[in-house]
Amino acid sequence: MSECKYKRVMLKLSGEAMAGKNGFGIDFEVAKRIATEIKELVDMGVQVGAVIGAGNIWRGREGGGMDRATADYMGMLATCINALALQNSLEDLGIETRVQSAIEMKEIAEPYIRRRAIRHLEKGRVVIFAAGSGNPYFTTDTAAALRAAEIEAECILLAKKVDGVYDKDPNKFDDAVKFDTLDYKQVIELGLTVMDSTAITLCMDNDIPIIVFALDEPGNIRKAATGEEYGTIIDNYSKEAAARDC
Ligand code: GTP
Known about the structure:
Keywords: Allosteric enzyme, ATP-binding, Cytoplasm, Kinase, Nucleotide-binding, Pyrimidine biosynthesis, Transferase
Binding site for ATP: 12-15, 55, 59, 166, 169
Bound molecules: guanosine-5'-triphosphate
Distance between the termini: 38 Å
Subcellular location: Cytoplasm
Structural class: alpha/beta
Number of helices: 9
Shape: globular
Order of helices and strands: EHHEHEEHEHEEEEHHEHEH
Largest sheet: 9 strands, mixed
GO molecular function: UMP kinase activity
Radius of gyration: 17 Å
Catalytic activity: UMP + ATP = UDP + ADP
Number of strands: 11
């Protein structure tokens, strides 16, 4: 089995990933498969933090006439449901897991405490960061970037439905071209919607590479973390190239 070059990673899963083909709710067969893949990383000695979205339960942006903040808070609560489901699936496989919530609900989950999260990771526990960043107007992508920076994760493993970043939607356009590498500024300048701009700039400012891959095939989380197979890497390669050219 390939070695993982990362000691600590942040896995970002979309809520839809938990829904499987149903597109809504939680498919526990799918949750089990994701948990099995996370176990592969844990068994390799990789420390794993995870952030899950909520699109399988609630989409804040589609909250009809609701005010944005309330719709976003509902989304944050939905991420807690997904976090508990994933925790359950991981624990079924014997993986110690802690859920930490950005919104205090201490009967259900630990509150988010950065130093405590790091201690859990050091002890080999998977830490699932629930309730986003605890603030409306921010996405779970931004929460993943923020927590990745806080716990000093070496990369974000960004699980998607498609196998990388394309210049246009590959589901709609046959001539869509995939990028193998991108730097953060290109993502923003080209208006690529892989992550929102707040999340991208947070990664840029903190030098956190983003590895984009498709979750569809079993084993892809490990393959992305080991560099065996992935779609696109977003990092500061231009900056590195510039430094080399000096
Ligand atoms: P160590 O002390 O480092 O071994 O960590 P630990 O998480 O095992 O210790 P602790 O005794 O704090 O936690 C035991 C269990 O209680 C774990 O499953 C925690 O997730 C859970 N727990 C701890 N604090 C809270 C809390 O504020 N709310 C909820 N709901 N659970 C908590």
